[in-house]
Design goal:
Helix 6 packs across helix 8. The protein is α/β, with parallel strands linked by helices and 226 residues long. The strands form 2 sheets. A 7-stranded mixed sheet has the order 4-3-2-5-6-10-9, sandwiched between helices. It is built from 9 helices and 10 strands.
Length: 226
């Protein structure tokens, strides 16, 4: 488990309690700085997603499916998340066929695409995670997984969120790139592509206490096929 630098004055939260607090401002605060470039690159490699079935794992408020819609991919989505507060926002958007408030629900369905964006950093066991994705994927289907780049944790950056008059830390796990590859290979997944995103100057200027992180690896994405 990632441990933030001791000198940071952070209110430590579990995933459930942290996202309950963040859910109030999540859609207003979060941009696609970490995942947007990665997802755009993968969209070019994926077949046409219109009308396809998607399992949005760690769906949160629904931003991932909204992002797909905004980029021309109108899918039939099922969402999974452990945060009832995040799911309440997703439910109001009416973009999911079903929503499940569980960590690994048993679903009687296989999907064309399993999408997991910035969720793996809150999950300890990657092998179990990839096995779950594999189980719910159609033959020939794809997995798109975007994680925080391990480099960010190595320089002291975790999921730190300003909430009202304090800053919270939501529990993270650090997954090296080779850990993802091993977990995917254990399921006999075929790795098609790896993409990275990088810290833009405007983002780095907000985190000057870590030094100038401009150009440092920020996110990493994996495109797999069954």
């Amino acid at each position: 488990m990632f441990q933030p630098p001791e000198e940071l004055d952070l209110d430590h939260q579990s995933v459930e309690s942290g996202y309950a607090l963040w859910s109030r401002t999540y859609d207003e605060m979060l941009t696609d700085t970490v995942d947007g470039d990665i997802l755009r690159a993968f969209l070019k490699e994926l077949p046409d997603l219109n009308g396809k079935s998607v399992l949005d794992f760690g769906c949160g408020t629904g931003r991932n499916i909204q992002w797909l819609q905004e980029h021309g991919a109108h899918v039939n989505a099922v969402g999974v998340d452990i945060s009832k507060d995040m799911l309440s926002h997703a439910r109001q958007k009416n973009i999911y066929e079903q929503l499940f408030e569980e960590s690994l629900p048993e679903l009687n369905q296989e999907f064309d695409l399993v999408l997991s964006v910035l969720t793996a950093c809150h999950v300890e066991d990657l092998t179990e995670l990839y096995a779950y994705f594999w189980k719910h994927l159609k033959a020939g289907g794809h997995i798109v997984l975007v994680d925080m780049h391990p480099h960010m944790f190595h320089v002291g950056k975790g999921t730190y969120v300003p909430v009202e008059d304090r800053k919270i830390y939501i529990q993270n796990y650090v997954h090296e790139i080779n850990a993802h590859i091993k977990a995917g290979n254990a399921c006999a997944c075929n790795l098609l592509s790896i993409e990275e995103s990088f810290v833009p100057a405007e983002w780095a200027s907000k985190s000057t206490n870590y030094g100038d992180l401009t150009g440092h690896p920020l996110g990493v994405g994996y495109l797999w096929q069954k």
